[in-house]
Amino acid sequence: MKHDTPDPALSQTMRDQAMMEVVYKIVHDLRGSVRAIAELPNWIEEDLQDVGVVLPEGPAQSFDLMRRHAEKLNMMLDQLSRYSKTGYRETERVSVRTCLERAIAALNLPSDMQVRARFDPAEIEMNPDALTSIFLILLGNAAEHNEGPVRIAVTRRLRDGYWDMMLRDNGAGFPDGKLEQVFDPMSKFSVAETGGAGMGLAILRRLADSYGGVVEALPPRTKRDGATIRLRLKQLHRD
Q1: pTM score
Q2: Which of 33, 68, 89, 99 makes an SS bond possible with 131, Cβ 3.0 to 4.6 Å?
Q3: pLDDT tens-place string over residues 209-235
């Protein structure tokens, strides 16, 4: 009896779809807990006010930090949920700078973090949520994994049929010999304790895969360079 040989590409696609269904279910279950964490400081403050207690400055700052972390986590869950359901297949003509500014506003970046950006061309054919998620991951990582003032340069241009984007900061950079492992799910190589789950760059790689592209971490060119990420996406614009 003759048996058909399974198509490896089709099998991989089916495994990816099954994994995304699991991710979606996990995200759905986590959302309620994240919302409760975000509201917990408000509930405690209201209870204290009812009995005439004013929250001291220290705990108030801690509560504010808890809110911001919960809000960012909820945002990432929202983006991951959309990605798991649709893969960001629907595209439109979007302004790259607008998506960058959306990410900057959502992240509430430190005042001493400077972002310099240069884009050519200024618009591309892409899903705006996908592009915003890319900036959320890249800028968020740079802000969390660097101490002191952070300077980030973002450039994007068309080269050989690909959109080629580079982000470089002035921080500690990636560990020697770990340029590939930083994209593994649940990987954490920073010396700083950020509280993250180590999923940001793994999600970034999946976003790149969904657009037929690649993402890689590059070694520093000079002593002033920190982490450098290069993202290449297939040309998706319409003339």
Answers
A1: 0.65
A2: 99
A3: 877 788 999 887 777 777 889 888 876
